[in-house]
Amino acid sequence: MEKLKRYILFFIGLFINAFGVSLITKADLGTSPISSIPYVLSLHFPMTLGTFTVIFSLFLIALQLISCHERD
Length: 72
Fold this sequence. Notes:
single chain, mainly alpha
């Protein structure tokens, strides 16, 4: 049950992060280097910047998990 709560909070945090990146970009405040890849993808594909930010963040987390398991 505790693990499920952590996952739910993690995904809520990811969506809040994606919303913040989208808001900053739409306000013409610029994008951070970590948000530049999702931003460029959102210009060329029908998905939104927030969606690409969530997908890209999950991709980076998966890469970290893979690299941690390879070191062990």
